Amino acid sequence: MNIKGNTFVVGDIHGAYRAFIQCLEKAKFDYNNDLLISLGDVFDGWSEPDKVIDEMLKISNLIYIRGNHDEFALKWAETGIVTNDWILNSGLTTINCYPGGIPDKHLNVIKDSGYYYLLDNILFVHGGIEPDADIKQQQKETLMWDRNLFSLAIYYYLNKKEFHVNGFDEIYIGHSPLHRFNIYHPVNSGNVWLMDTGAGWNGCLSMMNIVTHEFFTSDIVTDLYPDEKGRF
Question: Distance between CA 147 and CA 145 in Å, rounded?
Fold first, then answer.
């Protein structure tokens, strides 16, 4: 992929299209020349995951990493099965958004996604990793669901201690929302960046330039969707 512009990473969007647009505008994102790496979980939360995917399809250079909620949506689209686990994790917002089912052009975004992405020696993954295992050998459940890496990173950050994961220059993860710690911006802990700032809940969405580490945050999402509940 020949990128002429900047490279950005965005955290878990969870249907918050209005927050996504705010971040793109604040970053002055160039749809033709910049690269956007989505850490996944576009679905389940607020009411507009379809608009998020439509917006992503306008982007010439997009890397989409599969999150656990994307996996939920894909399994429903392919099998028609609605699990209790998904419903408890806000699956109804996706079902209601797609009363006729998820169209192929949106499904293909999920189907074409990987469970991680390596750019030079920078790792992008939704959930986390087992630090001592080869990335190519890791289970998809770990890559989508792991919170151990987040727990370590946030512990060292809050306690102002040094932290480093061997094997990568930087690691960007989503999945575990920082707003639960009253943090509404990306957090850097050693060589790990925590990017989920609670857009699915009552936090905000964050997007970052991975070279300058300048970040762009949306308004609090409950203010953008005052008539909805999100992932409560």
Answer: 6
Closest CA to 142 of 173, 187, 180: 173
Burial grade of 98 (CB within 10 A; 0-12, 13-18, 19 or more): middle
Query: How is residue 92 written in tokens?
Result: 């109804």
Q: Are 69 and 14 in contact (CB under 8 A)?
A: yes
Residue 49 region by backbone torsions, left for phi larger than 0, else alpha for psi between -120 and 50, else beta: alpha
- Dump strand ranges (E) for 41-146: 61-64, 116-119, 122-125
Count the neighbouring beta carbons within 10 Å of the beta carbon of residue 135: 15
CB atoms within 10 A of CB 109: 20
pLDDT tens digit at each of 232 positions of the chain: 778 999 999 999 999 999 999 999 999 999 999 999 999 999 999 999 999 999 999 999 999 999 999 999 999 999 999 999 999 999 999 999 999 999 999 999 999 999 999 999 999 999 999 999 999 999 999 999 999 999 999 999 999 999 999 999 999 999 999 999 999 999 999 999 999 999 999 999 999 999 999 999 999 999 999 999 988 7
Give, as one character, the DSSP assignment of residue 136.
Answer: G
How far is Cα 12 from Cα 175, in angstroms, rounded to an integer? 7
Crossing angle (nearest 10°) for helices 17-26 and 49-56: 30
- Domains defined along the chain, listed by start: 7-224 (3.60.21.10)
- Distance from C-alpha of 5 to C-alpha of 15, rounded to nearest angstrom: 26
Q: What is the DSSP letter of 71?
A: H
